[in-house]
Design brief:
Layout: H1 30-37, H2 40-59, H3 71-91, H4 98-117, H5 123-130, H6 134-144, H7 150-158, H8 163-168, H9 175-196, H10 201-205
Length: 214
């Protein structure tokens, strides 16, 4: 959401089936929580982002529990988690957010390639056919996996900075711009994970339709 990017949502380890109040896990003051509660759009973004964090935070460890996937796919989704975790840590503690952007882009790319690897596409093809082209990877995964929301994923990655160019001469994004890049990358990884696990808070709890990213 468009709150200060230095605030964190903590994803706990949970056993059983408790009721989770996302606001209690958010690193915000009571006044900030009250302000956000008065903004329905901010609450919807926060809810969507929280679902993504939980689905991916647990799902990357269960990648392939509901269907057989390759070890390479499991390795890729694990590496996606590593980069997204690094992106979140940088975003909430660093002054220069360009490290956040690079890590977020890598996290999204590796998640998409985990999905493609799960469909038998080998490492050579992943590198040569797709490279850093997230849109191409998203479209191909959507062709292979009917439950994967390739339309929304393509919209999410459509405004991402160019990976190679941003390493050398990209302007430092604002905190809000960085937040959207990071949370859209998190959404991409979560959407891939939901396709290959039974983790889907939204579906299992019959909550309102997703609005973020649009």
């Amino acid at each position: 959401s468009e709150m200060c990017i230095r605030d964190r949502l903590y994803v706990p380890m949970i056993f059983g089936a408790p009721e989770v109040d996302f606001l209690k896990l958010l690193d915000l003051s009571d006044d900030q929580k009250a302000w956000m509660g008065d903004d329905s759009d901010a609450m919807k973004r926060f809810e969507d982002q929280s679902f993504d964090l939980f689905d991916f935070g647990y799902g990357f460890m269960e990648f392939g529990h509901t269907r057989q996937v390759s070890e390479e796919a499991k390795n890729l989704i694990y590496r996606s988690h590593v980069y997204l975790e690094a992106a979140a840590a940088t975003a909430t503690s660093a002054y220069d957010f360009r490290g956040t952007v690079q890590s977020a882009l890598l996290g999204a790319e590796l998640a998409l390639k985990a999905g493609l690897a799960s469909n038998g596409i080998d490492d050579t093809a992943l590198r040569n056919r797709f490279g850093h082209d997230l849109n191409k990877a998203s479209l191909e995964l959507g062709r292979l996996e009917p439950d994967f929301d390739s339309d929304r994923v393509c919209r999410a990655v459509g405004n991402f900075p160019h990976f190679a160019q941003s390493r050398y001469n990209g302007a430092m994004p604002s905190r809000i711009e960085t937040g959207h890049i990071l949370m859209k990358a998190q959404y991409v990884a979560s959407e891939v994970t939901r396709t290959f696990t039974a983790r889907d808070i939204r579906a299992s709890n019959h909550v309102r339709p997703r609005t973020y990213p649009t």
